[in-house]
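Lab notebook, bench 4. The sequencing result for the construct came back, and we need a structural model before the next group meeting so we can plan mutations. Quick request posted to the team channel:

Model the 3D structure of this chain.
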Amino acid sequence: MVRQLFRFGLAGVAGFVVDTVVLYLMLFLGLGFYLGRLVSFFCAVWVTWHINRNYSFAPGQKTPPSWQEWWRYLLAMSLGGAVNYLAYSASLQMSDVIRAHPVYAVAVGSLAGMAVNFISAKWWVFKR
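Done. Here's the predicted structure in token form:
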């Protein structure tokens, strides 16, 4: 389980990078902090699903992507995503510094939702 948690954390780092880059792109395009974060969240979930299904929870298993698994994963990550989004939103309201550098709010949200996401991924989505 420690190996899975470590790999899940690495997938989370990749998701964090995607989340942040896409958020900044959405901010540049004028979507704003909240709608932009919804877009970036879905992009990060897509990336972490691929990493987690192939690396964290089923290394070496060559199973084709399953749309049923994708929807389960999206639902599971949405639970942690709600925790993530609430922490992100609260962080934005706390400081002008955080609003000027939303990467900090993304980090706070990511850490807040990580435990919920690991538990739901391990014991529901990728339970083999």
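Residues 2-125 form one domain.
Will bring this to the meeting.
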